[in-house]
Design a protein that fits this description.
heterotrimer; A: about 325 residues; alpha/beta; A middle domain of Talin 1; seven-stranded mixed β-barrel; 9 helices; about 15% strand; elongated; B: about 250 residues; Rossmann fold; six-stranded mixed β-sheet; four-stranded antiparallel β-sheet; about 25% strand; Mce/MlaD (chain A); transmembrane (chain A)
């Protein structure tokens, strides 16, 4: 009898510990998926969820706060995603928060990142649909790019004209000084160049910010989950950066020259007497030209990037439509 | 048929029992009657169907045809419950003792009491019954041993005690002395006799041991080729001139 | 000669089908009898103790070593890709989903399956099963139902232990080689796991346990006469069970794949 009693106790222990392991595992897994405890619903919609699955994590400023509960097709490009969020965290989310889709590491599963918006806003209430980010961002970015590109094109054309004229001979220098229209032209070009340069740097900083968030991982623009693509974009941005520096250089060079011209005779003499300077301007112009070409190339590269392809196609279509009108 | 003991009524009747395994016809129309208070020895060569017969008798094997009537009930027509009830009246001593290896002697003896509750009711304390059965085989000291710790003779006696614990009216012995040395075998035979005196049981003893048959039998049946070849007391049969019968007595 | 070979193969196939058929009847009888009263609860507990507690050490040691070795072996490959931080998730998923259940089941097929085969076989040979029948106890209920139940319910628990210990073994390697803290390791482990990993694997283990008990009992209960029969019963119980385990595993994974759609 003694023996069977201890056997029973041991069996009981065995079963209880075994089941505890199971329950603990279940609880821990469930806890990770926020299946138990106080949770509140929150929704958002995307036009592309990139293979997001039920149960994927939701992060708020990089902290795991919930999971994806439901993914529903609403329109052909509109997918509503419902999430459950930890109640504790819920009180910190404001209505201007934005959701993006990103990937968790190199081969990780998809995550939704909720980023706090700038400035003040009301707190979200349960079931509130916060805005999502991925489309707006890329569109804005590309708009800027396209404007910059146009400006740069115009400016290089103008500059080329001027430099060619300067190169054509001494006569032109005189013409340059005497012809007010020409001076005006040059001035205009300068302002274009300035604007263009500003815009370029602006878009670069935009892109840079984008890349930075890419690096941070917790703020990934949904579509840019692929590192290869990210690297490519980084390259493009690097190129743009260089271009911008060169444009800047060119602008300051030309600026200096123009100032000299404006200043009066000394400058004119200097300009006409110093072939080195002429060459310098020439080379500056070539630089600007090159830079502009490179910028074009970069934009071309962006166009071929599958991510932005759709956007460019849309632009072309719009252009066609306008032409038809 | 009850020629030898006309004052007793039959307790087991077997009529035309047939059993075959494939092409091997083990029993070919075996007939037998066991009277109350009688020790019936059934002798036969190995494979002559003795064990099969006795297993049919207790419902462990199903015969192909023939009827077996035990205490007025026809085996084979009984429901599981009534068969089990009937089995409480029939003890079975197995050839190899068949003690449960994983249980102590006490648990072995208690085992039949678990389900055969009709006879004694549900027992809170089985000790008196266990000890009584053990004392009647002279092994009260072995109550807490495991079967592996027992000698062959002790095992046989414990097995006997296990059959006795339900105080059956009939005991079936399947080769009770096989595998034991002559002295132990004799002890077992003496024990069997004393039990018959004590509990007034009827018994069928299956054996091929002539000494066993001589000591214990009131009547004998010789089983040859699946039928009851010859019948009579030990003296009658040992004087027979039939060569088949003589072969048993050498 | 070739005719003979063909004939042999047909005979082999026939006997295989016969075995499957008999096993199915045996399983059907198990289900019929397991609902009948009285319930042999005490014997069930005894068997649970025998199969659960007494296998724990074996399962623990194997589980620990498997976790250890598995991690040690996969580490260099992951290191090549610079993905050592994926170790916990990878190890946990493979242990919980596949390695834990199948290794534990195989170990138990060796220990418990052969044990049941030999025990019931020798009980059959020495007429203990007949003796039970005569004693008014349904031996099928007392011996077979309790044992199959015990394996069915004990194996999942053994697998929990095996999984936990295997993960611990894996953690030790990670801790020594990669300086991963206990908290981080298990955080990553449970981060990688989903219910879709744990639940099908757990359900599967019930079937594993059932198969071990069923085949062991089947082989033992219908053991051929003689001591050689006992050996054959024990041996074929292990072989047949191991094969059946893989078949069940295949079906389980297949079904999981379709229905769970992970």
């Amino acid at each position: 009898m003694e023996k069977t009693t201890t056997q029973k106790i041991r069996l009981g222990l065995f079963v209880i510990i075994g089941l505890l392991i199971f329950v603990l595992a279940t609880y821990l897994i469930g806890d990770k998926q926020k299946m138990f405890g106080n949770t509140v619903q929150l929704a958002t919609s995307f036009n592309n969820v990139n293979g997001l699955q039920l149960g994927n994590n939701v992060r708020y400023s990089g902290v795991n706060v919930g999971t994806v509960r439901n993914i529903e097709m609403i329109g052909d490009t509109n997918i509503r995603v419902e999430m459950i969020i930890d109640k504790e965290i819920f009180k910190h989310i404001k209505k201007n928060a934005v959701a993006t889709i990103g990937s968790d590491g190199l081969v990780g599963s998809m995550v939704i990142n909720i980023l706090p918006g700038k400035g003040m806003a009301d707190l979200v209430e349960p079931g509130y649909e916060i805005s999502s980010l991925n489309r707006i961002r890329t569109d804005d970015l590309l708009n800027t790019f396209s404007k910059t590109n146009k400006n740069a094109e115009q400016l290089t054309e103008n500059l080329l004209k001027i430099t060619n004229e300067i190169n054509d001979g001494e006569g032109t220098v005189g013409l340059l000084v005497n012809d007010i229209a020409m001076a005006k032209d040059l001035k205009l070009t300068m302002s274009y160049l300035k604007v263009s340069s500003q815009k370029t740097s602006e878009s670069i900083s935009n892109l840079n910010r984008l890349i930075a968030t890419l690096n941070n991982k917790d703020n990934v623009v949904g579509i840019l989950k692929d590192t290869a693509v990210a690297n490519r974009i980084r390259n493009i941005v690097g190129n743009l950066d260089n271009t911008s520096i060169e444009i800047n250089k060119a602008v300051s060079n030309v600026n200096k020259t123009v100032l000299n011209i404006k200043d009066g005779k000394g400058a004119l003499n200097y300009l006409s007497n110093d072939p080195g300077l002429v060459r310098k301007i020439d080379s500056t112009m070539t630089n600007v030209n090159e830079a502009s070409i490179r910028l074009n190339e970069d934009l071309e590269a962006l166009k071929h990037n599958f991510l932005f392809r759709g956007y460019f196609r849309k632009l072309e279509r719009e252009k066609l439509r306008e032409q038809k009108k | 048929m009850s020629t030898t003991m006309p004052n007793k009524k039959p307790i087991i009747e077997i009529k035309d029992l047939r059993k075959s395994y494939g092409d091997n016809h083990v029993l070919n129309g075996f007939n037998m009657v066991l009277n109350e208070g009688e020790n019936l020895v059934i002798m036969g060569k190995s494979g002559s169907g003795k064990s099969v017969m006795i297993k049919c008798l207790i419902g462990l094997e199903r015969p192909d045809s023939g009827t077996i009537i035990v205490m007025g009930e026809t085996i084979g027509e009984l429901s599981r419950t009534t068969l089990d009830e009937l089995r409480t009246e029939i003890g079975f001593l197995f050839q190899g003792s068949a003690l449960y290896d994983s249980m102590t002697v006490r648990e072995n003896l208690e085992f039949p009491l678990r389900r055969h509750t009709k006879k004694f009711g549900i027992l809170k304390d089985t000790t008196p019954l266990v000890m009584e059965a053990l004392e009647s085989v002279g092994l009260a000291h072995a109550v807490n041993l495991m079967p592996a710790e027992l000698s062959g003779g002790m095992k046989r006696r414990i097995a006997l005690a296990r059959t006795l614990i339900l105080q059956p009216k009939i005991i079936l012995y399947d080769e009770p002395t096989t595998g034991l040395d002559p002295i132990t075998a004799k002890e077992i035979l003496i024990l069997m006799k004393s039990i018959q005196d004590k509990y007034n049981t009827s018994a069928i003893i299956i054996t091929h041991d002539v000494d066993c048959a001589r000591v214990i039998s009131n009547r004998m049946i010789l089983l040859v080729d699946g039928i009851n070849y010859a019948e009579g007391t030990f003296e009658e049969l040992s004087k027979s001139t039939d060569p088949q019968v003589q072969a048993f007595f050498k | 000669m070739p005719m003979n070979a063909v004939f042999n193969i047909i005979e082999l196939f026939k006997s295989f089908l016969l075995e499957i058929g008999e096993l199915s009847f045996f399983a059907a009888r198990f289900f019929r009898e397991s609902f009948k009263r009285p319930v042999e609860f005490k014997e069930f507990l005894r068997q649970c103790y025998n199969m659960g507690n007494r296998s724990l050490l074996l399962v623990a040691v194997t589980g620990f070593i498997i976790g250890l070795v598995f991690t040690l072996q996969s580490r260099p490959t992951l290191q090549e890709f610079g993905a050592v931080s994926w170790m916990p998730s990878m190890v946990s998923i493979s242990i919980i989903r596949e390695i834990g259940p199948i290794i534990t089941a195989l170990i138990c097929a060796g220990r418990i399956g052969s044990g049941i085969g030999a025990e019931l076989g020798s009980m059959r040979v020495t007429e203990q099963i007949d003796a039970m029948e005569v004693s008014g106890t349904n031996p099928f209920k007392y011996l077979v139902v309790t044992r199959i139940m015990a394996t069915t319910f004990m194996l999942p628990i053994l697998v929990f232990f095996g999984d936990a210990i295997a993960l611990f073994g894996s953690y030790l390697v990670e801790n020594i080689k990669g300086n991963v803290s206990f908290l981080l390791y298990f955080n990553q482990v449970f981060d990688a796991l989903e219910f879709g990993d744990l639940m099908p694997a757990t359900i599967k283990t019930f079937f594993f346990g059932f198969a071990i008990g069923l085949v062991g009992c089947f082989k033992g209960y219908y053991c051929k006469k003689g001591t050689a029969g006992v050996g054959v019963a024990a041996n074929s119980a292990v072989v047949f069970t191991s094969m059946l385990l893989f078949i069940i595993d295949f079906i389980a994974v297949f079904v999981t794949d379709i229905f769970y759609d992970l």
